[in-house]
Amino acid sequence: MKRDPVILIVVAVVISLMLVFGIQKVRHNNGPAYLGGESKLQGQLAPDFTLTALDGKTVKLSDFRGKAVLLNFWATWCEPCKIEMPWFVDLQNKYGPQGLQVIGVAMDDASPKEISGFAQKMNVNYPVLIGKDSVGDQYGGIPYLPSTFYISRDGKVVDRVFGLVSRSEIENNIQKALGQAGQVAQK
Amino acid sequence: MRVASSFGLQGKHILICSALLASSAAGFSSVNAQDISYSRKQSVTMQPPPIASIYRGHPGTVQLQFRVSSGLHINSNQPKEEYLKKTELKLDAPTDITIEKVIYPDGQDRTFPFAPDEPINVYSGDFPIEVVLRPLKTVIPMKYAVHGWLFYQACDNAACYPPKRLPMSFEIKVVKSATETKKRIPPQSPHTHD
């Protein structure tokens, strides 16, 4: 039986495209950003939540509207999270006057006292909130820590990153959230 | 071959290119599919241990073999920092069988890209945990199942996964002790003694 080469090529190309796009779709929906995925939340309004801070005050995300927010989900047992925290302290000092607010959300089963002690040890200068799974779920689930969401001044998710990345990448994302993208590379 | 010859040299090249495209796409996809499923499954598995025979009234050891998924590590049972989650085996023994001791191996001090100057005491790859059990003297000799779970918290080089519990179980066979067996041997005839 004579086979048409064009049909064979078309079949191969279609199968290839199905495999590539099918997997890409899954990754964009579920895959960690540090592996190249995107969030469904990207470009959407960041889900609002109300959580209790370590000082006992109630904090609502929407209270920070008008500021760029770096929303960092972390835990005391997460070693890579510990590396980022001093960077966040520095970046809060550097970009705070320009409208950045770093917010830590502790996804921890440790007591608030233990979390507070840890945060003090790390010289944290930004609010740390006691996290809840329901808030993590609002953000698409937090399968890995650290997980960081960058929120623009108008409350939209600009980017999210799962896992530890370089300080310069964090700074780039802060610039994006502040609406100053492209300025970090020159500095 | 009829089909190949009918394509000519150019046709063959097109087919080869198409096959390469398809296989590379499949390869690319399978790599990423692994990344995605990575977070959803357990990072540690237990290899089913052989059934250990333990004399009743005596301690016996069962060695359990665990495996940490490639590219991951978990804290040892003695992590250096108090806030790190230690690996721990919790067992629920059947009535009249006591868990005398759980023996954890020493972890390895390893540094990671996220903390190059602070070694962390971890398990990675395969590691054993030994369980010392003692069935009471009154236990009926037969097989018993011991259930429990391994508590662990895994990380890779850049991220950590929430603490997890690995449900596990193993079987032991309680047998009569050697002294009990000896008692059963009938006394020898006095004629055989001097």
Helix and strand sequence of chain B: HEEEEEEEEEEEEH
Give me the Rg of chain B, rounded: 28 Å
Helical stretch tally of chain B = 2
CATH topology of the largest domain in chain B: Immunoglobulin-like
Query: Largest sheet of chain A at a glance?
Result: 5 strands, mixed
SSE succession of chain A: HEEEHEHEHEEH
| Strand segment count of chain B | 12
Helix content of chain B: 10-25%
Mean pLDDT of chain A: 85
What does this 3D model show about the protein?
- The complex is a heterodimer of chains A (187) and B (194).
- By secondary structure, chain A is of the alpha/beta class.
- Chain A folds into two domains: 1-30; 41-178, Glutaredoxin.
- Helix content of chain A is 38%, strand content 18%.
- In chain A, strands 5-4-3-6-7 form a five-stranded mixed beta sheet. In chain A, strands 1-2 form a two-stranded antiparallel ribbon.
- Chain A is elongated.
- Residues 20-37 and 183-187 of chain A have low confidence and may be disordered.
- In chain B, 26% of the residues are buried.
- The model of chain B is unreliable at 1-9 and 19-39 (pLDDT under 50).
- The longest helix of chain B has 37 residues, at 2-38.
- Chain B is α+β, with helices and mostly antiparallel strands and 194 residues long.
- Chain B has two domains: 1-38; 44-177, Immunoglobulin-like (Sandwich).
- Chain A binds chain B through residues 2-3, 5, 8-9, 12-13, 15-17, 19-20, 22-23, 26-27, 30-32, 34-35, 75-83, 107, 109-110, 114, 118, 143-146, 162-165, and chain B through 2-3, 6-7, 11, 14-15, 18-19, 21-22, 24-26, 28-29, 32-33, 35-36, 39-40, 83-85, 112, 114-115, 120, 153, 155-156, 158-163.
